[in-house]
């Protein structure tokens, strides 16, 4: 259950950084670079993928045996 909560928090963090970068892009001039937030988003998505692979390998989450 904890792994699912961590994944959901990371997904929310990723979407938040995406919208923050969008607001900087639309505003034009800003003191913070847009690449800062896009980099955080990429790191969050890489962390999500690694956590999913580790959770599947250790059996913390179960895969769907029949997808149809």
Automatic annotation (TrEMBL):
Organism superkingdom: Bacteria
Ranges annotated as spanning the membrane: 6-26, 38-61
UniProt KW keywords: Membrane, Transmembrane, Transmembrane helix
Protein name: DUF2909 domain-containing protein
Species of the source: Glaciecola petra
Record lineage: Bacteria, Pseudomonadati, Pseudomonadota, Gammaproteobacteria, Alteromonadales
